[in-house]
Amino acid sequence: MNSQKNESMKLYISIGAIAVFVIIVIISVAIGVVKTKQHRAEQYNDQNTAFRLKSDIAQRGIYHGADDLELKELVVQLFVYNQSYAENQLTINDIFDYLSAQHESDSKLKKYSRYEDVKFYIDWSVRGGRHITDNYLPLLIRFLENNSEKIYSDISYEEVEVALEEYRNSPEYIPPRQFR
């Protein structure tokens, strides 16, 4: 009888150990899933901030495509970036191409396979580039006010591109690198 109790006790201990192990595995997997989702949300936040996607902060942690671009602000930011980093030039079309789909053909998230110039741009934007651009924009607005009848808020992103080139060629021009 004692032997039977010992066997029963061993069985209960084994079942308990297995149950604890299964619970630990389930918790570990759940934590991993949460961390992966959190990491992806942080990456999308960085990307959306860099590309001037969705000004609503609550929407920045999810994927947004090219349709959600704030084009005028992105054109100004790309201009500032390109003036600061001539070796890593990006165009608005590069950004459109990058945002053309959320996934690569092999089903990997495009964020994880982004090419190096875009990665450098995103990192630059998040680490102060957006701040530089926000300080630079008033110079363009003042240039428009002083040299044309155009108002920044009323012009298209193509007109912003032209205005930036006109500003760059004017005696009033202050290079963005002076804002670092």
How many helices? The count is 5
Biggest β-sheet strands, sense, barrel: none
Radius of gyration: 26 Å
Report the principal-axis shape. rod-shaped
The CA-CA distance between the termini, in Å, is 82 Å
Give the helix proportion (percent range).
Answer: 55-70%
Low-confidence residue ranges: none
* Number of DSSP strand runs: 0
Structural class, by secondary structure, is mainly alpha
Helix-strand string: HHHHH
Name the average pLDDT.
78
Provide the β-strand percentage band. under 5%
Fold and architecture overview:
The chain has 180 residues and is mainly alpha-helical. Helices cover 64% and strands 0% of the residues. It has five helices and no strands. The relative contact order is 0.10.
Task: For the structure shown, list the relevant keywords.
180 residues, mainly alpha, 5 helices
Question: Secondary-structure blueprint of this entry?
Answer:
Blueprint: H1 2-50, H2 71-84, H3 92-99, H4 116-147, H5 157-168
Helix pairs in contact: 1-4, 2-4, 2-5
Q: TL;DR of this structure?
A:
This protein has 5 helices and no strands. It is mainly α and 180 residues long. It has a domain of 110 residues.
